[in-house]
Amino acid sequence: MTDTPVCPARPATPSRLARLRDSDLWWSFTSHPTAVGAAVLLGLMMLAALLAPLIAPQNPYDLAALELWNAELPPVWVEGGQWPYVLGTDLQGRDVLSAMLYGSRISIVIGIASVIVSLAVGLSLGLVAGYFGGIVDNVLMRIGDVLLSIPTILIAILVSAVAREMLPPGLREAGAAAVLVLAISLTAWVQYARTVRAQTMVERNKEYVQAARLIRVPARRIMLRHILPNTMTPILVAATLNFGLAILIEATLSFLGVGMPPTEPSLGTLIRIGNQYLFSGLWWIVLFPALHLCLLVVAVNLLGDWLRDALNPKLR
Amino acid sequence: MKDPRNALEVEGLGMVFDVSASWLNRVVERKPRRYLRAVDDVTFAVPRGGCLALVGESGCGKSTVARLVTGLYRPTSGTVAFAPGRDGAPLAAQMIFQDPYASLNPRWRVGDIVAEPIRELRLRETEADVTDRVADLLRTVGLSPDDMAKFPHEFSGGQRQRISIARALASEPEFLVCDEPTSALDVSVQAQILNLMRRLQDELVLTYLFISHDLSVVRHMSDRIAVMYLGRIVEEAETEALFDAPQHPYTRLLLETIPDLHAPRRRRAAPGGEPPSPLAPPPGCAFNPRCPVAMPVCRTDRPAETARCGAGRVACHAAAATASAA
Q: What distance in Å separates the CA atoms of residue B144 and residue B159, rounded to the nearest whole number?
């Protein structure tokens, strides 16, 4: 921006941070203790997952660090518990807390990755379908209808089972995370595509889009720079809620044994392993990973619910 | 181009919209295809530096004509021809839209909105030149260059319409299509915007195609007026000739509805009835169900255009009969 002769003392454009603090959204956030609580909880769990190598008492992947005489220790507050195994150990002497921190890392990464992949697919297909309409729209939306008419978990099981068989055995464990992301995204994109399509069909006919078409702005740029930003509000809500859903689907698949392998356990894998020892009295192996998963998903959902209410002009 | 003095010549323009139900519904419910003839055989010309107004009720197809002229719609039939402009290439029309709330992207800053045509068409080399030009444009339309950093929602309807005008001027057009630019504004603000547009016309030698349903606005702005009814032009004449001696009963009806300062309590003939649906236009003259002077021939034959006094034309059996009798 250059100075203009008329009024040199132009007030500075408020920074993004200042605008955020001024916004209705921030006000709504600070006046909803549930949302603040959920955000803090989620932030803490994300941070713990991110910093797992620094804060975990043990590296659960390092077989050399496991000591068999530390196996089956209960949590420290129970009789027989031992530091530093705060939440106890499993049958191989693996620290449950460390396994959980590393496991939540995998769960969160898979959740974020599948949201990103399904967003990318859903947004672009939804924009194209809504902007161009006609046959393209019909074909894309019917594919979406078919995918939605089959339960998500069935498709995910099918895809991950088939994909695992197709991968060469050496790649099966390494590719497990990618297969999970693919399996979850395959159905999740439909919701984004539908939302964006509906919004695009409204925005496409607005006069600001016609003004852009008059100066021959290419369709791709109109979609990305004019229409997409105006469709983001409902997408933001859907993405938040789907993040929680993706973590749950991943956990379900891992629990059923078609997800992450025991060598690289996610929260779902930990629950599946722990579940086998529940009746042997080793309740801590399954309880703590299950609690962690539960808190993670509840925090995400509470945040998503608040966001949906806060961004809905009819509920203000 | 038939006449080199014209900036725009439109001939036999027609636009048919397919408003059928989807294929599945048509098959299951045995519905026929339905077509809406929004614009039917419309012919007019706009002289360079002049202003032609298209007037008519809602739904008569005037906004469709605007979008056909600017190229947003592809006409079903007929031609739209622009004269070569200053640089030799055919004139490019820009448009000022009706709704000042929908015509500006709510997520863009005003500076970016006005700069978009400049950047997109690469009319300036450097970003500093673009900013200077945007500041100039904002001053031209009576806003401050400081407004560049603001968002559209910080402005009133009239100010938004000024921004819209600045954006339309940004690509240095010689032809502007104004689609009811004042219909969404307060009366006091309407006058400001109209005066601004007149001033710009004189300063920048613009040619206007001005679309409105408000004859008093049109009288202030235009040299010629074309009255549209159900997709067709029923009467066209110079502004004063049309106001002094309206020939078509529909034009008379529209003029009757304008409040008159000198006869505030005169009884005004309220326009009877609604315009018929363009999906099923009545046979003969489209105006015949509402026409006070309708004759039997009006219900069967579509009236041809005949010359009217004051270098215009009118499409009406009654007017033609009076003219030939005189």
A: 11
Question: CB distance B131–A208 less than 8 Å?
Answer: no
Contact with chain A for residue B209, Cβ under 8 A: no
Residue A271 belongs to domain with CATH number: 1.10.3720.10
Residue B266 has pLDDT above 70, yes or no: no
Number of folded domains that form chain A: 1
Work out the average pLDDT over A193-218.
90
Q: Are strands B232-238 and B224-229 parallel, antiparallel or unpaired?
A: antiparallel
* Record: contact B132-A1, CB cut-off 8 A: no
B51 pLDDT tier (thresholds 50, 70, 90): very high
A4 at interface of B, judged by CB pairs closer than 8 A: yes
**Calpha distance A222→B71 (Å, rounded):** 17
Average pLDDT of the residues of chain B: 85
Which pLDDT value is given to residue A115?
93
Q: Measured between beta carbons, which residues in chain A are less than 8 angstroms from residue B67?
A: 210
Indicate whether A296 belongs to any domain.
Answer: yes
Shortest Cα–Cα distance, B61 to chain A (Å):
17
A226 reaches B (C-beta below 8 A)? yes
Average pLDDT, chain A: 82
Q: Which residues of B touch A10 (CB under 8 A)?
A: 145-146, 149
User: B100-135 burial, b if ≥16 CB within 10 A, otherwise e?
Assistant: bebbbbeebbbbebbbbbbebeeebeeeeebbebbb
Contact A215 B97 (CB under 8 A): no
- DSSP per-residue codes, B29-60: HTPPP-EEEEEEEEEEEEETT-EEEEE--TTS
Q: Which domain holds residue A207?
A: 43-59+79-315
User: Between residues B202 and A58, which one has the greater pLDDT?
Assistant: B202
Q: Does A9 map to a domain?
A: no
Rounded to a whole number, what is the distance in Å from the CA of B106 to chain A's nearest CA?
A: 8
Average pLDDT value for residue range A271-288: 81
pLDDT digits (tens, 9 = 90+) for B293-309: 888 888 888 888 888 76
Residue A17 lies in a domain: no
Report the distance separating Cα B23 and Cα B317, nearest Å: 42
Domains located in chain B, CATH noted: 6-246 (3.40.50.300)
Confirm whether A163 is domain-assigned.
Answer: yes
CB contact under 8 A, A1 and B131: yes
pLDDT at B292 over 60: yes
ipTM value:
0.84
